[in-house]
Amino acid sequence: MFNGTDKRYNQYSAHLKNKFGVKVYKITLDAGFSCPNRDGTISTGGCIFCDEGGSFSQSHSKLLSVESQIAEGVKTLSSRFKAQKFMSYFQAYSNTYKPVKELEKIYNSALSNRDIVGLSIGTRPDCVDEEKLNLIAGYKDDYYTWLEYGLQSIHDRTLKWINRGHDFDCFLRAYENTKEKGINVCVHVILGLQETHEEMMQTAQKLAELEVDGVKIHMLCALEGTRLAAMYNRGEIDFMSEDDYVRTVCDFLEYLPPHMTIHRLAGNGLKSELIAPKWLGAKFDCLNKIDRELLRRNSYQGIKS
Ligand code: SF4
Prior knowledge:
CATH topology: TIM Barrel
Bound molecules: iron/sulfur cluster
Low-confidence stretches: none
């Protein structure tokens, strides 16, 4: 059992509650970033699953300033959930993909409210450098600071298939440089990338070996308007069944050391844009099934680590 809950994995939200004494709510932000894999710098079209919002994004309107998004997020979450503490989360696109001076202004504006206790920045491993990492490391004494790297798989063949535009070595370099600065790292992976079970477990084992601080697990899904949706409509690919996914997630968790925080266990794509697999639209059913499967096995995160 983890964080005084009945969860058999180290759920990030419970970890935050333990750390700060109250539930901490994420405010997702959209500061109008782009991505070199979409703007033609690396390639055109981006990752095959990436939608208009910059991949699985749930953030506020980019028409609002970051300060306004924070103010609105605090107001809404406080009145709806009586929230007291918040993390600023830059989710959409690649949130280090601007000159460092601009980044500093943007990140500072996300910390304008005194109840913000943390900063999470989602990006690609090829969009950081020494200067940017120094800037981000500068926040860690005052805020719980995370960099979230999209990796998806450790297998270069898969990264090529999804048109990721970087390889695993690129991730490794960014990861080592980030850890050197003392910044927490969460790694995003996707299951169901037409890989064998063994290949997916190799990704889990590698993340365990690297001792990353957190993991976010998504199920591959086709959202409207993506290249993946077109491939699915042409009958070129299929998706894992929910039962398969549940078993695979549990197998994956068994390899991850207990201290590693689990930020997500299923995708969060907009239901209205979800083409397939349809079962992902009932995300909480899937999460409940993962709990039940771990209980059935009498297993837990890290049992094989
Ligand atoms: S790195 Fe992220 S924003 Fe860029 S194309 Fe891939 S999923 Fe989309």
